Amino acid sequence: MKSNLDLVDECDAFPYPETSPEAHSALLSTLYTLLSPSGTPIGYLPEPVFNALARVPTSIKGELEVSRTARTVSVFHQPTEKERSAAIAATCAYWRKNKTFDVLAGWRDELYRIYDDKLEGGIMFDVERSASCLFGVTTYGVHMTAYTKVEGVSHGIKIWVPRRAKTKSTYGGMLDNTVAGGIASGEEPFECLVREADEEASLPEELVRERAEKCGTITYLHIREKRAGGESGMVQPECQHVYDLELPKEVVPKPNDSEVECFYLWSVEEVQEALGRGEFKPNCALLMLDFFVRWGILNEENEKDFKEIKRRLHRELEFPGPHRSDWKS
After folding, report:
1. Does pTM top 0.90 for this prediction?
2. Are 282 and 276 spatial neighbours (Cβ–Cβ below 8 Å)?
3. Closest CA to 125 of 34, 233, 30
């Protein structure tokens, strides 16, 4: 059985310089830092991605500058956000056409927004969702835990847990949060939640708008492995906007697309057992731990690593974006 700290380690897998300096330095030595036109670090490129990027014709990607001593890459430095977005789109389309990366087989025709508040408008570029992990840039999503009050069970609630469809290319058959999804370019987090709640769980818009409670964010620095689909070793910084939703007993989440197989209504103990078995998608396990911390289900009395877990649910991500307290919109 996995411990709660094991679950955190599985999702927040990038070594910390304070606690694991040698591992942190060793990993950084295999990566290139992607710089924006302002010189701001915005992402991490593994060696295979850098090599593939260097081979993309300049007529497609624009000029590329590399410092092999500093391990930095400057590219997509066109004057405007529109031009930068067009250049990275053309680069990703070139890779897709040439089947350079397996991860692009999951092309979504959805864009993620990448930020730098030192640039005009605060936007570096928009990038195809499936390609974002290749550049190691920070992406954003929403995750909601829906629960129903039930008398006679521990903590007075049961939690709605979906099983991902086995046919999904990423983490097929694993457990998820009640509603979860990526925030598209230009989309507000709550509007994303409303959309995903309908698409994934058939939850009425009016109910979600009226009852969903904003519960902050969690942040982590993930390293992709084979269950994510595509190449392993890609660095994935993420910020998830967190929501809770109390559902009336008569409201039952139901799959509304091909991404969810079914929903379970589980006690806290049943969820904890499934977490221990490693059945949850890694970042969804983190969201469940955050739920347990906020509800007092997980505390200093019953979890020896409580302080460490709580701290790592809110990792400081070094790249710019609205997740940072110093962000200038």
Report:
1. yes
2. no
3. 34
Do 93 and 161 lie in one domain? The reply is no
Cα separation, 314 vs 196, in Å, equals: 24
Q: Per-residue pLDDT tens for 131-189?
A: 999 999 999 999 999 999 999 999 999 999 999 999 888 899 999 999 999 999 999 99
If one counts the domains in the chain, the total is 2
E strand or H helix at 308, and its extent? helix 306-312
Identify whether 321 is part of a domain.
Answer: no
**Nearest by Cα to 137 from 228, 26, 222:** 222
Residue 238 domain flag: yes
* Residue 72 and residue 110 in one domain: yes
Distance CA 146, CA 90 (A): 40
Sheet containing 31-35, strands listed edge to edge, beginning at the edge strand earlier in sequence:
41-46, 31-35, 72-74, 65-67
**Selection from 95, 164, 162 nearest residue 131 by Cα:** 95
Q: In the 8-state DSSP scheme, what is residue 232?
A: S
Residue 327 lies in a domain: no
Q: How many CA atoms lie within 13 A of 215 on its CB side?
A: 24
90 Cβ neighbours under 8 A, 6+ residues apart: 60, 61
The string of pLDDT tens digits covering residues 205-256 is 999 999 999 999 999 999 999 999 999 999 999 999 999 999 999 999 999 8
Domain stop point among 135, 167, 188:
135
